[in-house]
Design goal:
Length: 126
């Protein structure tokens, strides 16, 4: 069973996405910010991360930068699920840090999200 870490400071978004994934058979981990997500990964390494960009304590870009520098997790697939739509610099920075996909919260559907999660999971997790 694939394990997905959902990192989002908005409880409704985090819980909705996690519940959907669980309903579809995924195991989920939940974190309110990048700092919490980072600490969680030492106990349970996920197969994929769904990451918001704008969060307190540790934002998504800082989390991504740290992840890509890590020897343990630098290849871990990350899908950005963000409310940021008008900050081209922030989105560009996410792509530079090798995110696998980016989904605007304003326009995503659950089927689309599930399809992208499945597409970006490593072969061993499918």
């Amino acid at each position: 069973m694939a394990k997905v870490l959902v990192i989002d400071d908005t409880a409704l978004a985090r819980e909705s996405v996690a519940k959907l994934l669980e309903y579809e058979g995924f195991e989920t981990l939940r974190a309110r910010n990048g700092k919490e997500g980072w600490a969680m990964m030492y106990n349970e390494t996920p197969d994929l991360i769904l990451l918001d960009l704008m969060m307190p304590e540790m934002d998504g870009i800082t989390f991504l930068r740290q992840l890509r520098r890590s020897t343990l997790w630098k290849e871990l697939p990350v899908i950005v699920l963000t409310g940021v739509s008008d900050d081209d610099k922030l989105i560009s920075r996410a792509w530079e840090l090798k995110v696998n996909d980016l989904i605007p919260k304003a326009s995503f559907g659950f089927e689309d999200l599930l399809e992208r999660v499945r597409k970006n999971l490593p072969a061993h997790a499918n």
